[in-house]
Design a protein that fits this description.
Elements (H helix, E strand, L loop, with lengths): L1 H13 L9 E6 L10 E5 L9 E7 L8 E6 L10 E6 L7 E4 L9 E7 L25 E8 L14 E2 L9 E5 L5 E4 L33 H5 L4
Parallel strand pairs: 5-6, 8-9
Antiparallel strand pairs: 1-2, 1-10, 2-5, 3-4, 3-7, 7-8, 10-11
Length: about 230
């Protein structure tokens, strides 16, 4: 019995993280130096999983737009790649599995990114989920599978549906967030560079690939201070 239990534990440890959990948001890369034409959202999930019925939506969290649905990307007809990473990217980027546009596809301001199942038919990019502008959503967007909020200014902006909030990065909107470990870990900040991250405590951008995480994630330094030198 002890031998069989040992084998079972070894087998479990050998299974990749994405095979032990459901579909999740793994990275959101929204802001970079210069024109934003390398944006992406990466999902992590079981290989070959059909994505019919799933949708990624983005909800505005800043004033004059509180609660409006900014983006809707339906995933019907798509399938998770064999490596378990699904890259929704601007056109021209490597490893693209789904096109979200050419540039400026994800706003550089507070926004809640949600992966939902069975988005109600009435939800469009004209939908306001917070008509009172009080930071409290009033309508359903379907079954929420995963979500994350990237925050610019917590004194004036809102996250929705109880999404965990990350940011600001110093005084700046974060470049993005990435899970470390892939698929199951907490989110940490990403550098503003698409490649060549110089901060050892930040994740580099890796669309469609395993996340480039610090060896041992620790309290993050403030990349926003560095970005300020280039303003």
């Amino acid at each position: 019995m002890k031998y069989l239990l040992t084998l079972a534990i070894v087998a479990l440890l050998a299974v990749p993280a994405f095979a032990q959990q459901e579909l999740v948001i793994n990275e959101v890369f929204a802001s970079m130096a210069g024109t934003d034409y390398d944006e992406y959202i990466e999902l992590c999930g079981p290989p070959d999983m059909a994505l019919d019925g799933y949708t990624v939506i983005v909800i505005e969290g800043q004033g004059n737009g509180w609660g409006f649905v900014d983006r809707i990307w339906p995933l019907d007809g798509y399938v998770m790649p064999a490596d378990g990473f699904f890259a929704m990217t601007d056109d021209g980027m490597a490893n693209q599995d789904y096109s979200i546009g050419t540039s400026n596809s994800i706003e550089n301001g507070t926004e809640t990114v949600l992966l939902v199942y069975e988005l109600p038919a009435g939800i469009t990019t004209a939908t306001d989920v917070d008509t009172n502008d009080d930071g409290v959503e009033e309508i359903s967007v379907g079954t929420i599978i995963d979500m994350v909020c990237i925050m610019d200014d917590p004194t004036t902006d809102f996250c929705y549906y109880g999404a965990p909030s990350y940011g600001p990065d110093g005084t700046y909107f974060p470049g993005g967030v990435a899970r470390c470990e892939d698929c199951t870990g907490d989110f940490i900040f990403m550098c503003y560079n698409i490649t060549g991250c110089v901060d050892p405590f930040y994740a580099d951008a890796t669309p469609g690939l395993p996340n480039d995480c610090p060896v041992s994630p620790v309290e993050q330094s403030t990349w926003g201070t560095i970005k300020g030198l280039y303003k």
